[in-house]
Automatic annotation (TrEMBL):
In the C-terminal section; belongs to the flavoprotein pyridine nucleotide cytochrome reductase family. The lineage of its organism: Eukaryota, Fungi, Dikarya, Ascomycota, Pezizomycotina. GO terms for cellular component: cytosol; endoplasmic reticulum membrane. It catalyses: 2 oxidized [cytochrome P450] + NADPH = 2 reduced [cytochrome P450] + NADP(+) + H(+). The chain crosses the membrane at residues 20-38. Residues 83-237 form the Flavodoxin-like domain. The keyword Membrane applies. This is NADPH--cytochrome P450 reductase. GO terms for biological process: sterol biosynthetic process.
Length: 707
């Protein structure tokens, strides 16, 4: 029979359902083979065949391609734990809550708990999570409802429509045997409040997991996060008590860390400078900070004061990246690791009875293999307090309850317990006065020292010192081997004293020392051992990459709203556009709305804006609002209304990009004004305007960098 006859016979026959399924199967396999050969798919894929349904399941992220990270389920089983608490944390709050929750579950109910960084594990085998165990997620949201750096991979994995689980997962409900609880940390001034916790919880349930209790939510805007967490966890313990047959027991505090003082300093004792030049042989070594983002040492090239005010400061810094391996793109953030001020270090050491042995070396180890150590394994008390602990940060009520157990004085013990139990009293005495732990102890009396508190307990009551994030205010196109930061110095006048922000005042002190200016008596003294040496002013940083970027198409118009130091990334944006214009590129219009108090005091980069306007000619407009130059206060929101037609045209007719940078309250007000002016100018209904703004956000044409 000829091939023509065969073809005719096949074409005249009626294909069965099985023929169709097999035909599609072979076509799909052939396509996969072709793509694999061409390098379009790095890993194979498989076909999920069920009765009456053919499903193509991508395996590019997992399944046949197993994650190089440790399997979370294997680790739980190996450590014989029945409760794992996974955190997504940017500033340390979620991690701190997780550690306290694990501690309480262990001591109060006998749960075999462990705390885990979401970034440390692979989740392809999460569908094997044992039914008799429980996972608890403590997740922070930041920015536009984005996951924290250490939660990005897990978030992207679990929120997929079909997460790439390993072979063997149930097609419809892969997590049907898993039970979990979740608490989210967010800020209701953001449009996407607690998006990460809500999305993760919804995704887990969509894949079959069962939520124990309610989804807890803390709201930083209302300063109720800790109270909400305490209420949620008490409810959770009741739910878990029923689900896992837990019985509350009387418990004594068991330290998670073991401190052993050394008779003489070890060869590798950390004194703030990291591993040490003699071991690494280079200036730009890593500092030994815990966590996934290891900072590098950079040198302060130049610094200057930007404000012309006797009582306020704003610092411009330029940092040298040469030889560090660090690189950035316009719009990224610099994460600066601060150092605690001398006066606060001295106060803390004195209050806790460590003054006389501040330079005594000790080793620290974990009481359990699953607990991470927040310090170098060998260091000194001075170094630990100066470089690694958030001694000037907010106090938690839970920490006061723990410290009260070790207070040697009955008056102190009772005072600490009362503060830990009464939210209103705690707010009046501590929160409203911005007291740190050592300052609080000083106010309690009689006597200023709680000598009985072991340093191991202090490590659990005081959070690790975390980096502070600043928008990079230079263009990577212009400053390839250096970056600039613009930092307003935090200082709040209280009754009888000033509250000083840790990182901004540290950077102010660096600027003062570099320029041989008179330091503030309360500021950090820069003559420190460690990575600030007498020849160079060095500091520790890493880069956090951001999606806050100017459009790739330089011809697209952009509208930027950045009052105060919110203008920092826009300095970089406009610098970049000026360089592109000089290079012959087509550059779209750039409009900047900037606001500050007084044109004569805090109009930062005024000369630079004028120079950039000359370069870009009519392609760059600057609109300014000075709130205290006139009787009627004018803010950037008012400027937007004054230029409503221009704003509407740029966004809706020219398909321009909108960027907002600054504090969350300002961003919320700007959003309100934008809705009103777009509705009025475009004649669109409010729902249509909301739809347009949502579409802009989804497509990347509306971006916010807010705090």
């Amino acid at each position: 029979m000829s091939s023509i006859h065969v073809a005719q016979l096949v074409s005249n026959s009626q294909p069965s359902v099985l023929d169709i399924i097999l035909g599609y199967t072979f076509m799909a396999l052939g396509l996969l083979a072709t793509l694999s050969y061409l390098g379009k798919i790095s890993q194979p894929a498989f076909l999920n065949l069920t009765l009456g349904k053919l499903t193509f399941v991508s395996q590019t992220k997992g399944s046949l391609h197993k994650s190089s990270k440790r399997c979370i389920v294997d680790h739980i089983n190996e450590e014989d734990k029945d409760c794992i608490i996974l955190f997504g944390s940017q500033t340390g709050n979620a991690q701190d809550f997780s550690e306290k929750l694990a501690k309480e579950g262990s001591t109060r109910f006998g749960l075999r708990t462990m705390v885990a960084d979401l970034n440390d594990y692979g989740y392809e085998s999460l569908f094997k999570f044992p039914a008799e165990k429980v996972a608890i997620f403590v997740l922070s949201s930041y920015g536009e409802g984005e996951p924290t750096d250490n939660a990005v991979e897990f978030y992207e994995f679990i929120t997929e429509d079909c997460p790439p689980f390993s072979l063997g997962a149930h097609a419809e409900a892969p997590l049907q045997h898993m039970r979990y609880a979740a608490f989210g940390l967010g800020n209701s001034t953001y449009e996407n409040f607690n998006t990460v916790a809500r999305s993760v919880s919804a995704s887990l349930q969509r894949h079959g997991a069962r939520l124990v209790g309610d989804l807890g939510e803390g709201d930083d805007a209302q300063a109720t996060t800790e109270n909400s967490f305490i209420t949620w966890k008490e409810s959770l313990w009741e739910e878990l008590g029923r689900a896992m047959a837990l019985e509350e027991r009387k418990s004594n505090f068991e330290p998670s860390f073991i401190i052993t003082e050394l008779q003489s300093p070890a060869e590798t004792t950390y004194l703030g400078e990291g591993v040490g030049k003699k071991l690494m042989g280079a200036r730009n070594h890593f500092i030994d900070f815990p966590g996934p983002n290891k900072p590098s040492i950079v040198t302060l090239l130049r610094s200057k004061e930007l404000f012309r005010s006797p009582d306020r400061n704003c610092v411009h810094l330029e940092l040298d990246l040469m030889g560090t391996g660090l690189s950035y793109q316009t719009g990224d953030h610099a994460a600066i690791w601060p150092i605690n001020a001398d006066c606060e270090v001295d106060r803390f050491l004195r209050v806790f009875g460590l003054w006389e042995k501040r330079h005594t070396s000790f080793s620290v180890s974990s009481a359990k293999p699953t607990i991470k150590i927040p310090l170098p394994k060998t260091t000194s008390y001075d170094t630990a307090v100066r470089y690694y602990l958030e001694i000037a940060g907010p106090i938690s009520r839970q920490s006061l309850a723990t410290l009260a157990e070790f207070a040697s004085d009955k008056f102190q013990k009772d005072a600490l317990l009362n503060l830990s139990k009464d939210p209103g009293h705690f707010h009046k005495i501590v929160t409203s006065q911005l007291l740190n732990l050592a300052q609080l102890i000083e106010t309690i009396g009689p006597g200023n020292v709680i000598c009985a508190v072991p340093f191991a307990v202090i490590l659990e009551c005081v959070k690790p010192l975390k980096p502070r994030y600043y928008s990079i205010s230079s263009s990577s196109l212009i400053q390839k081997s250096s970056l600039s930061c613009t930092v307003v110095v935090d200082s709040v006048q209280l009754q009888g004293r000033d509250f000083k922000g840790v990182a901004s005042n540290y950077l102010l002190a660096l600027k003062n020392q570099q320029n041989k200016e008179q330091p503030d008596a309360q500021n950090l003294t820069c003559g420190l051992m460690g990575h600030l040496d007498k020849y160079n002013l060095n500091l520790a940083i890493h880069i956090r990459h951001s999606s806050f970027k100017p459009p790739a198409d330089t011809s697209r118009p952009i509208l930027m709203i950045g009052p105060g130091t919110g203008v920092a990334p826009f300095r970089a944006f406009v610098q970049e556009r000026a360089a592109q214009f000089k290079a012959g590129h087509s550059v779209g219009n750039s409009i900047l709305f900037f606001g500050c108090r007084k044109s004569s005091e805090d109009f930062i980069y005024q000369d630079e804006w004028q120079g950039l306007q000359k370069i870009l000619a009519g392609a760059f407009k600057l609109y300014t609002a000075f709130s205290r130059d006139t009787e009627r206060k004018v803010y950037v929101q008012h400027l937007l209304m004054q230029h409503a037609a221009e704003v509407c045209s740029l966004l809706l007719e020219q398909n321009g990009y909108l960027y907002v940078c600054g504090d969350s309250l300002m961003a919320r007000d700007v959003h309100t004004v934008l809705r009103e002016l777009l509705c009025k100018e475009s004649k669109l209904s409010m729902p249509e305007v909301d739809g347009s703004l949502k579409s802009m956000r989804n497509s990347g044409r509306l971006q916010e960098d807010v705090w």
